[in-house]
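Researcher: Checking consistency across runs. Here is Ammonium transporter again:
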Amino acid sequence: MVKLDRILESKPKLKKLKCKKSWLSLNWKICLPLAAIIVLILNYAAVAQTSTSAVKPSLSLEVGVDTVWVLFTGCLVFFMNAGFAMLETGLCRYKNAVNILAQNFIVFAVATVAFWVIGCALMFGDNTNPLFGTKGWFFDGTDQQMFKSLKSDVPKSALFFFELVFAGIAATIFTGAVAERIKFIAFLTFSFLLIAICYPITGHWIWGGGWLSKLGFYDFAGSTVVHSVGGWAALVGAWLLGPRLYKLESYGAPIYRYLKNGSNIAMPGHNQSMATLGSFILWLGWFGFNAGSTLKADPGAIAHIFLTTNMAGATGGIAATLISWWRFGKPELTMILNGVLAGLVSITASSAFVTVRSAFWIGLIAGILVFFSVLFIDANLKIDDPVGAISVHLVNGIWGTLAVGLFSVGIEDKLRNNAVQFAPGPKPGLFYGGGLEQLLIQLLGIISVGIFTFVFSALAWSAIQATVGLRVSPQAELDGLDISEHDMDGYHGFEKKEV
């Protein structure tokens, strides 16, 4: 035992190791590598400047910043698809949630292929043809004739992405108007045809160097090019599909929501939280939608467009709130949401060409228009539009395009009122001493695009009806398209009740 104790005592004791304190503090350890990186970048820039003859214009700092701006705002516009998905799903019934989400998700994929194969070529392939482009099929970024009408030094691939997300938005607009009763295959087919043929042809007239642009028609970010085209497609689709079915116990059989006595059955949405969040996303995305259309990081123009865009959305929401409060006795949330969206649609054509004060009135009128339009289309025309897409996008797309001819400040300094006029731009509007000239040009564009899109949509929808069919069966509609079209339940495990 004594021997064991001696062995334990003789065991060397472990010493605590002390780490030598580095002569560099944490801040220096971080700053030195960063400084080295900055020096390398500056040296690279200095070397590049010594051989300017070998530097391509596309690699300049200005073009680089413009490219980042275009791609960033394009991503904001892309994110608007999530806004539409949430808004439309929330404003429809729970039994169709999966179907509407699936439509809003896959539609951008369909639009991507359609625009890549043919749409981009028809829209931007030849700025000398007054009707449609003829070059650039299966876009690969190498055709130097593409996008000449946009007069931008941004790489063509960046321009393609930016224009693609706009095409995708046009395809999502009609989704809400035909919701809860359209076959999924019919929806996919029409989406492809719209983005491959209809949208790019009318877009070429205005943005692609076509005949309307040569006449002096202006639509800065797409009140007509995007929203009215989507709205016309929605109008024809909802009209041909007919109203939704509803099953009343007193009738014993399903009936259409428009009754013979002139009244109609309300079909409220199932999730107002989702609809509201979707509207917030759309409001955010609209800053990219409008300001990104400068296609360059012009500080003054971008800041001004942010202000006009926000002002119109705000006054549209306020107007719809006050009118619904007056008419219904309570402020109605769906009208508030659609009022904001209507204001945003209405300012899209003129956001770079009008003062903030004008944007106030443009949005205010849009909020009034969307309220009465929703009631008129539903009660008088008997066209069943579950989310109010026709009123928001078509009616206020038309109003926004006309507003250019009324409120545009023109390029004369004496008419600008300290506004930022993005050049090139329209002539002064009627309220700024320009007379009727610009207003009549805008009206001609509205009518031309409207007739073409209406006829195309009617032919396309009719062809789909004759082949794969447009509408699901009555029983499938009553059961819900989640089950009949996707064999899924959007709220599995929840107790659900039809309201």
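Researcher: Does this match what you'd expect to see?
Model: One thing to look at in this run: The first strand starts at residue 245 and ends at 247.
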